[in-house]
Amino acid sequence: MQARIYEYFSQILVQNSAQNLPQILITDDEKDSALCAEVLKFLGFKTFVLPDFRAHFGEDLRSYYDELIGISRALSAYYKCEGRKILISPVRTILNKLPTKSQLKGIKIEFAQKLNLAEFKDEILRLGYSVTQVVESAGEISFRGEIIDIFPLGGECGVRVLLDDDEIESIRHFDIDTQKSEKIELESVEIEPFLANLNKGEFESANEKISAFDSDALINDLTSLGFWFIDGFADYLQEFSAVLASPIKKDEIFAERDLSVLDTLSLIPAARKFKDLQITPNSEFFEFHKNDKITIIARNDALLAHLDLSNLSNAKILKEDFILNLISSDEIIVSLNKLIPKKRVRKSSLALDELNPGDFVVHEDYGIAKFAGLELATVLGHSREFVALIYEGGDKLLLPVEYLNKIDKYIAGGGVVSPDRLGKASFAKIKEKVREKLFVIASKIIQTAAKRELIRGVMIENTGPNYAKFIASSGFSYTPDQESAISAILQDLRSGKVMDRLLSGDVGFGKTEVAMNAIFATIKSGFSALFFVPTTLLCAQHYATLKARFDEFEIPVFRLDRFSKAKEKSEILKRLKNNEAIVCVGTHSLLNVEAPNLGLVIVDEEHKFGVKQKEKLKEKSQNSHLLSMSATPIPRSLNMALSQIKSYSTLLTPPLDRLDVRTMVKEWDEKIVKEAITRELRRGGQIFYVHNHIASMPSVKKRLLEILPNLKIVILHSKIDAQTTEDEIAKFIAGEYDLMLCTSIVESGIHMPRVNTILIDNADKFGIADLHQLRGRVGRSNKQAFCYYLIGDKTALTSDALKRLVALESNSFLGSGSVLAYHDLEIRGGGNLVGEAQSGHIEAIGYSLYLRMLEDEINKLLNQKTIISSVELKISVNAFLNSEYIAEDRLRLDIYRRLSKCENAMQINEIYAEIEDRFGKADVYTKQFIDMMMIKVLAQNIGVRAISSADVNIVITDKNGEKIRLKSPSKDDDDVLAEILVYLRKENKNV
Q1: What CA–CA distance (Å, rounded) separates 700 from 498?
Q2: Helix H segments across 578-721?
Q3: Greater confidence, 328 or 653?
Q4: By 3-state DSSP, what share of the chain in percent is helix, strand and coil, each rounded to 5?
Q5: φ/ψ bin of 282: left (φ > 0), alpha (ψ from -120 to 50), beta (otherwise)
Q6: What mean pLDDT do residues 843-867 have?
Q7: pLDDT in tens, 578-597
Q8: What whole-number distance in Å separates Cα of residue 509 and Cα of residue 658?
Q9: How many CB atoms lie within 10 A of CB 981?
Q10: Could you tell me which of 75, 54, 58 has the C-alpha nearest to residue 195?
Q11: Which among 59, 329, 438, 604 counts the fewest CB atoms within 10 Å?
Q12: pLDDT at position 349, please?
């Protein structure tokens, strides 16, 4: 592909015939577009690449939001650019009519400009921006009093505009993750339109057409349907000169328009002189071609460092970002650069949707309750904000917001949750029982670690000449996470101490590749390795992977499970007995095998082994290096507590060729279900259909068979025994079934790259974190995956539920949603770490509190830190985050939560600065609440038990129960708070 593009455009440039330069280069898909762009950048063109847009007329475009933003961005930039430029577009995109130059004119706002807010809001809506509470992705804007946050389409980050009355006082960039603004002031900011800058008439006309259109979109607006109904878009194939980069397979394109237009375009001829070069260049390669003219492209010196280029007189080095690899009989152009993965939005540190009214929470003193939102209440004549918790029988507990750290979301294994009775001592008893159990667990964890500390580990070096070849033969470049995990593991193996490391990362993120690096080093150092997996299915998958990778390096790979024949088993036993360096993958059958020469034990999904098997595993691995792998991460705080005992590596970066999952929310409709299933079957894939009610599964199967009579369906759920489940999944992987009808997915640890469509019934009944995790079950290969959230009747949905589902659809939630799902997962992962035997206790108090208590016990035993006691505050002042200042409940709740978890004055000051940055100057009530939180942490630091006030009188009870009495100059709120703060600051200095 690159060779033909290079030859064609070089020729035109040499002939200096600029009039023959095409304005558009049409490719088959996004991958080809990227390859072509690299060649053209090398030749001095400014390239503008359109995304691959594959929607059909009338389709709800909320799930194509990223592509539409890409089209608006690329075309805006193209029209602004002067000089030699070219538009590169995948064929399916250019077949649509697209916005014109005049429609893409943006607006500019400047420092000191007068801004009429009502007019500006109107203009912004007509530019296609969405108004949100928190700006997290391109095309969003939020208005908060004197502050406007906007993420312009042409920008890399958000922009915060501060108004003084109607004049722009400041324009600064802000970070989407932390929502904090940067110091540098900007002169102006340009706001490009999303699709088109519409005048009032055009805006109304487009909206009328959208309202009249019969669509299955959840919300009919400009974002979901505007692209189809905005007038004035142009047919670029008629307006511009275009060429085809390669032959287009027309039978694979499903488009509304007549494809004969493609036959009228000229095709770039095949290359005659150059060929595409596909090799990882090394010193021998350059030595071999020492008489050719060579151009080496590298973005930095580090890439050149491992090549010995001192003898190369014929090489020209180009410090650029291009990726171009070509070879001819006398010339070579080779790039050492690798593709940089596109940045994924991993998180926003503000997990905003964490608590929604109706969710179950657990209070550390009173047990499980239903969260009912925030309430402003007056106590002794002063206003304060409380969190309302509903207990059994409708009893209500108002928890002062400064103690929000006492509640956590209730997460447990499932089953029916019911609130506890308020004021009953039973919760305290349960907690005490759990604490005793946890003390035993924590002691065991620490004992095991102490024992391992005393053992000398076998030294495993990794210096063999074949290691670089082994890495190169993986066929892809490692992600930065993989690289750091591998180097940490290899460091452990040669340290002389016994390794105990947990490697976590999502399915398909390359954990097995990391483990294979460790196995390679172990075998080449003359030791054997055992790889334990919980099921024969995983055993078969890992065995196939290891065999394929290790065969050319003469590393013997065996498997041992219930399908192994006696002959195979005896050969494994014999080889291990003779101290041969082999690797064997197996289920618990491998536990009874003697391996005197054992160097490394790898355990995948350890929490899925039974209690007795776990004990045996511990025995097996006590003298050898241990690497555990898990698809669920564990909470960071627990990780910190255990960091002295166990090492951790986490893989968070998805492989390069991963695509985001295309998500749609639809009302259940036969047509949609049929289309989703047939589309997947047409491309040889398989489908998950999630239905969370076991009793009605047969009727769902019957309904699916009425739609598609030849569909091969397997039903799986928790009531089916493990053996049958495993056999059925094996058949499913082998392709004997088309669709798996199951409760929330069976087996998350198994790689099923052919499953790329998931349909979720009654999606509105699931929590947002669950929906996120379910969606993550597909899209694990390089194919485009689809996720359908199906709901019963959209008119019956609450506006909140609708909002959450629509947010899921437009992928902007890749920010906070994944944090949630991740948080949820971490907590479950922490539970797995401790062991299934504890599930009863976990049900009683929820994972979050359980893990917090475990952390406390471990820290106590390790003398890490003392647990800070709680201070009782009864200060009669008005103190709360004012709802006129921060209007959205969930934002206030989030800030309350973060403030309640602060442990020192610096953390509180940081949050206070962030509040003023995001919402403008704080009002008096908000300031007083910040003072209250400052009093809380300063009092905690010196062990104060209680602080109360009435009028000007203040009483502070210290840790010994003695009372200190203070008098405030007046009974004004600010005087009372100032008096307490002066005393506490002085006492903190003396500590």
Answers
A1: 52
A2: 611-621, 636-642, 670-682, 697-707
A3: 328
A4: 40, 20, 35
A5: beta
A6: 75
A7: 999 999 999 888 888 888 89
A8: 10
A9: 15
A10: 75
A11: 329
A12: 39
Two tokens at 654?
A: 């998805």
Reply yes or no on whether the pLDDT at 813 is more than 50.
no
Residue type, 816: S
CB of 819 within 8 A of CB of 347? Answer: yes
> Which residues on adjacent β-strands are paired with residue 874?
948
| CA dist., res. 487 & res. 493, Å (int) | 10
- Looking at per-residue confidence, does 911 or 662 come out higher? 911
**Which among 181, 175, 179, 134 is positioned nearest to 156, based on CA atoms?**
175
Could you tell me whether strands 147-150 and 662-667 are parallel, antiparallel, or unpaired per DSSP bridges?
unpaired
pTM beyond 0.90: the answer is: no
Report how far Cα 521 is from the mean position of its chain's Cα atoms.
32
963 backbone dihedrals φ, ψ, rounded to 5°: -105, 130
Facing residues of 388 across strands?
A: 398
Per-residue confidence at 690, pLDDT binned at 50, 70, 90?
very high
CA distances from 361 to 317, 357, 521, 846, 847 (A): 61, 10, 48, 9, 11
What is the band of 815 on the pLDDT scale with cuts at 50, 70, 90? Answer: very low
Q: Which amino acid is present at 584?
A: C
Residue 517 pLDDT grade (very low, low, confident, very high; cuts 50, 70, 90): very high
pLDDT tens column, 183-203 = 899 999 999 999 999 999 999
Task: Classify the C-alpha dihedral 528-533-536-538 as positive or negative.
Answer: negative
pLDDT digits (tens, 9 = 90+) for 870-881: 889 999 999 999
Secondary structure (3-state) at 20: helix
Point out the least confidently predicted range of 130-139, 264-273, 577-586, 602-611. 602-611
Element (H, E) at 488: helix 480-493
326-327 and 275-276 strand pairing:
antiparallel
Q: Counting Cβ atoms within 10 Å, is residue 919 exposed (0-12), middle (13-18) or buried (19+)?
A: buried
| Three-class HEC string of 750-780 | CCCCCEEEEEECCHHHCCHHHHHHHHCCCCC
Alpha carbons 923 and 431: distance in angstroms, whole number: 41
pLDDT of 826 > 70? The answer is: no
CB neighbour burial string for 312-333, b if at least 16 within 10 angstroms, e if fewer: beebeeeeeebbbbbbbeeebb
Instruction: Please tell me the distance from the alpha carbon of residue 179 to that of residue 711, in angstroms, as a whole number.
Output: 49
Q: Rounded mean pLDDT of 305-324?
A: 79
* 112 C-beta neighbours (distance < 10 Å), count: 9
Name the residue type at position 963. Answer: K
Q: For residues 942-953, give the mean pLDDT.
A: 92
In order, the DSSP letters of 334-389 are EE---PPPPPP----S--GGG--TT-EEEETTTEEEEEEEEEEEEETTEEEEEEEE
Place of tokens 């690329």: 74
What pLDDT sits at residue 348?
39
CB 683 within 8 A of CB 755: no
List, in sequence order, every residue forming a beta bridge with 298; answer none if it has no partner. 319
**What sign does the dihedral 418-424-428-429 (CA atoms) show?**
negative
pLDDT digits (tens, 9 = 90+) for 418-441: 888 887 677 888 888 888 888 887
Amino acid (one-letter) located at 310: S
Phi, psi (degrees; rounded to nearest 5) at 366: -115, -5
